Amino acid sequence: MEKLIAKDLLKIKAVFFRPEEPFTWASGIKSPVYCDNRLTLTAPEVRNDVENGLAVLIRENYPDAEILMGTSTAGIAHAAITAHLMGLPMGYVRSGAKDHGRKNQIEGRLEPNQKTVVVEDLISTGGSVIEVVNVLREAGADVLGIVSIFTYGMKKGLERLAEANVKNVSLTNFDVIAKVAAEEGYIREEDVKRLIAFRDNPSDESWIGR
User: Fold this and answer.
1) Given a cut of 70, is residue 98 above it in pLDDT?
2) What is the pTM of this model?
3) How far apart are CA 80 and CA 90, in angstroms?
4) Which site among 43, 65, 126, 167 is 20 to 30 Å from 146 CA-CA?
């Protein structure tokens, strides 16, 4: 499944490598990769692979799941489609509470101790998805863990997930996609080491000149 999803994401340029001309993240970090998993929503065949894949991950890793909660905003559609496939209820968590109406931060009915799986599109440093987990825990949910389409596998993200005592399983990851990208001719074989160097230490830009 990891290679299938990697090929899908590369084909529609949801994950796009450009090691010779790095992208600049909002944080200022230079990155050889651009990731926009929202593009899967407008590619029906890829979307089908992704949502069915997420359902498989949930059944295998969180068989007791009772509700799916998407992250706002990228995880909402994936949570909704996957929940539909699995016959489960779903909701989502806003980045902040509304300033009107009932001032909800969690949308959808969440019962106390309900076994919950968070659906995220990608994980880099893990900060935003852990905030979602914390909101759900504070609301009384029993958070079983996270499923995501893609993870960078960055040290900071792995450490944060461990500290928060939350498990994540992804359809594919940075290392697999880098390898597949080289095999499929999107990048050169020698670029893979540069990409892994970025993954290991994003703040070190020495990989750019290699």
Assistant:
1) no
2) 0.92
3) 6
4) 43
- What dihedral angle (degrees, nearest 10) is formed by the CA atoms of 173, 68, 39, 34? -40
For residue 162 the two structure tokens come to 């461990």
Q: Which of 195, 146, 191, 145 lies closest to 175, judged by CA?
A: 195
Which residue, among 130, 148, 126, 146, has the nearest Cα to 138 in the 3D structure?
130
- Give which of 140, 160, 14 is closest to 78, Cα–Cα: 14
List all residues 6 or more positions away from 116 whose beta carbon is below 8 Å from its beta carbon.
65, 66, 67, 68, 69, 110, 136, 141, 142, 143, 144
Region 163-172: what's the mean pLDDT? 97
Which sign, positive or negative, has the C-alpha torsion 69, 136, 171, 39?
positive
